[in-house]
Design goal:
Layout: H1 2-36, H2 38-62, H3 67-78, H4 81-92, H5 95-113, H6 115-144, E1 155-162, E2 166-168, H7 172-181, E3 185-199, E4 205-212, H8 216-220, E5 226-227, E6 242-245, H9 247-254, E7 264-267, E8 270-277, E9 290-293, H10 294-300, E10 313-319, H11 325-342, H12 344-347, E11 351-356, H13 357-362, H14 366-397, H15 399-407, H16 412-448, H17 463-489, H18 493-496, H19 508-543, E12 554-560, H20 569-584, E13 589-595, E14 609-611, E15 626-630, H21 634-638, E16 642-645, E17 659-663, H22 664-670, E18 680-683, E19 695-701, E20 716-720, E21 728-735, H23 743-753, E22 759-764, H24 765-772, H25 774-808, H26 810-818, H27 823-852, H28 868-894, H29 898-904
Length: 905
């Protein structure tokens, strides 16, 4: 009995649900049909009401009424036909959408009737939305786009640190101890930067890669597009030479051939087997063309097994489940302290630094990008303020129209909705035009950024960027549309409809709001101008920094002798001597030299040294200079000043006593008050038992800026290349004319000696200087463009307000002049009004600038964020522009004819 009852209730419930669903579907179809086939539905409604009317007339006629009385009685029974129609429409539930359609059509007609207003507002909004979208595409591509790895927030990059040097690479034996002893990381992998010479192709070239632990890709959650990953055996020394190709290298050098797996390529003159291709979205924070197993790297770098050897290795770790960043850092600091106690000669004072992987990717550019985003938001706000002012002025002209609509029954909410609909329609059109401008802006920004500046980042118009643009469009519509809509709905019906009022005067509230909006524009523009001024002064001072060399007409190119034919020092030395001899003989060459390191490139080779008669410090506190291996003529070719002693000559060869030069900073720090010429040092920590290890200082040269113009000089040591032979060198050539014109001739010389030797890093020293300030330069260019745009918009804003005020006060000005006011009095009155607005905006802007300028402090060089000269110069420029914008309508006021002005009312 109970089961039957429950079954019956269930069936009844199902029928109820089914009936409700059917009714909902029927209603949805009716509403959809009412919207999509509105004309047909209205025709059917007319026919239905006509049918009911005719039937009622026939019924009335059947009772004996005359045709006229029958029709009149029928109409009385149905009452108002239009009201019946409205009731039927309400039953469909589509009034809101239909009303919106009416508002949109009406708004479109209104905008079409005012082409000048529409064009100015559209263009202003498009500039603001387009610029904001373009910058946000960079923000998203660099800072916000999820890294293409599994749970990237748990990935950490680990470095070693010392108090004297800061962040340094990780010793490979230390990495092995970290991996074995820690519990905070579920996995760890070593990643070492390596370079290769790719030969056996039409144009040999240098490519970059990473030697990685076999678990590197699996830790990232990356699977090869083709082929296989490294296996555990390939993490040990003696592993077979295999590589994974990056997707771009596979496309550019192998044409996307899917049969590339198993083929062999020549890297550093040896055959290497391709075992796979990386996916297209894989990228690392350094340029990566190939990956090789760490075991192959260990085989070719026997010194990597020494604990004190720190090459270009970092460690990637994945935090274990439930372990926080602070817990991991605490544990790793404890392990580093233990290793320092166990191996004091190599690890004393060495600590560990943990950074989230995302932080490593974006640390160099985050500040500049966020500053630009803030600047472009200010531009958008200024644009919105300008459009709001346009709407306020237009609303004042439409006061009678709005008053009439209120008088015949429209509600104030309905008026506000209509005005906001016009705002959203205008903003939508401006947003579409802004997207077109954003496409060009993105292309321009990516061209401004030097190659490699956005390594791995994808900057384009994608879903999140389009969503942001839509949000900015809605935000803009609300910002510039709300205040004008509210003011328009507050129109006084009686006063506006009085007879005799032939002109429209703005309310005091509208005038006050227009003034406030212009004050906001001026204050925002001043903030942007201060930022641009500080960046300009910073870049100017940076370019005045002495780089320590003379860059004029100097060309550099990098070469690395990595193949088997250069295993012996004699072969390496012979090649370099031949290159120097033949290049120096080229027409137009004034001098040529070789050097392992070139200033401003950030490339370096550092080591500890021991000075003669120096008390031996603790490990980690020895002098740790950058070491340059150079040929004779290096100092002269690069234009590094020789301060004391002599430069290297051909006599400083492998059979001569070891010689060295130091820079002025090292001479000052360790030989203050005495002549360093003739003093000795050697590499390493222990006392030198072999006299041949000592290096005698023969000269002191000027300091160079190895790490960029904004970074201070470091300790530097120079060694003759014949006494420390290496296969990695930069050829430095000084010419009489344009050095770039020598590139082809130098290539021919090099390839005549070795056709498979790649040449890379070709640039003039002037290009290196330009590249060293690229981040600041790009930031300045964009910030300057936004500031100029803000200045123009602010000038237009104050011009519009003063011009409209003059137009509204034409009658008053006519009376003043009729009563004897002089032209200078009228001019002073108009300029004073503008000066009050500009002055208020500048005061607020200066206060804001003092607070916001500190946000760009880390982008400045030798300039205070509160630099008074910059603030004063910006204030003067803005004041002049504001006064010029006020002077134009003021001149128009002077041309007012009192007779015409009085007759106008």
């Amino acid at each position: 009995m109970g089961e039957a009852l429950r079954g019956d209730l269930t069936r009844r419930a199902d029928r109820v649900i089914e009936n409700k669903a059917m009714r909902w579907i029927s209603m949805f179809r009716l509403r959809l049909r009412s919207l999509l086939s509105r004309r047909k539905v209205e025709q059917e409604l007319d026919e239905e009401l006509r049918y009911h009317l005719e039937r009622q007339i026939n019924e009335n006629s059947a009772t004996g009424m005359t045709p006229e009385n029958a029709r009149y009685a029928a109409l009385q029974s149905i009452k108002d036909i239009e009201q019946r129609k409205e009731e039927c429409r309400e039953m469909r539930g589509v009034q809101v959408v239909e009303t919106l359609f009416h508002d949109v059509r009406y708004g479109a007609r209104t905008l079409r009737k005012s082409p000048g207003f529409t064009f100015i507002a559209l263009f202003t909004l498009a500039l603001g939305i387009g610029a904001t979208t373009a910058i946000f595409s960079v923000v998203y591509g660099v800072l916000l786009r999820p890294l293409p790895y599994k749970d990237p927030s748990r990935l950490m990059v680990l470095h070693e640190t010392t108090p004297k040097v800061g962040t340094v690479s990780v010793s490979y034996p230390n990495f092995l101890d970290w991996r074995a002893d820690n519990r905070a990381f579920s996995e760890m992998a070593a990643v070492c930067a390596v370079d290769f010479s790719l030969s056996g192709i039409a144009q040999p070239e240098n490519i970059s890669g990473q030697a990685v632990s076999p678990n590197f890709l699996s830790m990232l959650g990356v699977h090869p597009l083709l082929g296989r990953d490294f296996d555990s055996a390939e993490g040990k020394a003696g592993a077979a030479a295999v590589v994974l190709l990056s997707y771009p290298l596979w496309q550019s050098h192998f044409g996307g051939d899917r049969n590339v797996v198993g083929r062999s390529i020549a890297l550093n003159g040896r055959g290497v087997t391709i075992i796979g291709v990386l996916p297209p979205d894989f990228h690392w924070f350094e340029k990566t063309d190939v990956l090789e197993p760490i075991g192959v790297w260990a085989t070719n770098n026997a010194e990597s097994s020494e604990r004190g050897e720190r090459g270009d290795t970092v460690v990637l770790g994945r935090l274990a489940a439930g372990v926080s960043f602070a817990q991991a850092r605490s544990e790793m600091e404890g392990i580093a302290a233990r290793l320092a106690r166990e191996y004091p000669a190599q690890n004393a004072q060495f600590g560990v630094l943990l950074q989230p992987l995302r932080e490593v990717f974006v640390s160099d550019v985050r500040s500049a990008i966020l500053v630009l985003l803030g600047a472009v938001v200010f531009v958008l706000l200024i644009a919105c303020a300008n459009v709001a002012n346009l709407f306020l002025m237009r609303g004042a002209e439409r006061t009678k129209e709005i008053a009439l609509r209120l008088a015949i029954g429209a509600s104030r909410v309905r008026i506000i909705r209509q005005m906001l609909t016009e705002s959203f329609l205008l903003a939508s059109l401006g947003g579409l035009l802004g997207l077109a401008l954003a496409i060009g802006g993105i292309a321009g920004i990516t061209r401004l950024i030097p190659a490699g500046g956005l390594e791995g980042a994808i900057v384009d118009l994608n879903g999140p960027v389009l969503f942001f643009a839509a949000g900015m469009t809605l935000f803009s519509a609300f910002i510039f549309g709300l205040a004008p809509a509210i003011h328009s709905a507050r129109a006084n019906v009686q006063s506006e409809l009085k007879e005799g009022g032939r002109t429209t005067s703005a309310s005091t509230g509208q005038n006050r709001w227009r003034g406030r909006l212009v004050i906001a524009e001026i204050s925002f523009a001043l903030v942007l101008l201060v930022g641009a001024g500080l960046m300009m002064k910073s870049l100017y001072r940076l370019l005045l920094v002495d780089p320590g060399f003379r860059p004029n007409r100097v060309l550099i190119m990098e070469m690395s002798l990595r193949t088997s034919q250069y295993r012996k020092d004699a072969a390496i030395l012979n090649f370099w001597n031949q290159v120097l001899y033949r290049v120096r003989a080229l027409p137009g060459v004034t001098s040529a030299a070789l050097g392992t390191v070139v200033p401003l490139t950030n490339n370096h080779s550092r080591t500890d040294i021991t000075l003669e008669d120096m008390a031996l410090p603790k490990p980690g506190s020895f002098p740790h200079p950058d070491v340059h291996i150079v040929s004779p003529g290096y100092v002269n070719t690069l234009g590094v000043p020789l301060l004391r002693g002599r430069a290297f000559t051909d006599a400083d060869n492998e059979n001569a006593p070891r010689a060295g030069m130091i820079n002025a900073l090292m001479a000052q720090r360790y030989f203050s008050g005495e002549n360093p010429i003739g003093k000795r040092f050697h590499f390493g920590h222990r006392p030198a038992n072999d006299p041949r290890e000592w290096i005698t200082i023969t000269g002191v040269v000027g300091d160079t800026r190895l790490y960029g113009l904004a970074n201070p000089s470091r300790l530097e040591v120079y060694i003759p290349f014949r006494q420390s032979i290496t296969g990695d060198m930069n050829l430095i050539v000084k010419s009489r004319n344009d050095p770039a014109a020598l590139t082809a001739a130098i290539r021919h010389v090099v390839h005549s000696l070795d056709k498979d030797l790649p040449i890379s890093g070709i640039a003039t020293m002037e290009q290196l200087i330009s590249n060293s300030v690229s981040t600041r330069r790009v930031t300045l260019i964009l910030l300057g463009m936004f500031s100029a745009l803000a200045l123009v918009l602010a000038a237009i804003g104050i011009y519009g307000v003063i011009s409209y005020s003059v137009a509204q006060r034409t009658h008053e000005i006519g009376i003043r002049m009729a009563l004897g006011a002089q032209r200078r009095d009228v001019l002073r009155m108009v300029l004073t009004q503008g000066a009050k607005i500009a002055g208020a905006g500048m005061i607020i802007g200066i206060v804001l600038s003092f607070g916001l300028a500190r946000l760009i402090a880390n982008l400045l060089f030798s300039v205070s964020a509160a630099d008074p000269l910059t603030f004063a110069a910006v204030a003067i420029v803005l004041a002049l522009v504001a006064m010029l914008a006020c002077y134009i309508p003021a001149r128009r006021a002077l041309r007012v004819d009192p007779t015409v002005a009085l007759r106008h009312e």
